[in-house]
Amino acid sequence: TEDLDKYVIKKIGKLDKYISRGTRTSAHAQVYLKESKIKNKKQCTCEVVLHLPREEFVTKETTMNIFAAVDIVEAKLKNHLRKYKDTHSIRPRIFNFQRHTKNKNS
Question: Cα–Cα distances in Å, from 81 out to 26, 31, 47, 67, 74?
Answer without folding.
Answer: 15, 17, 16, 21, 10
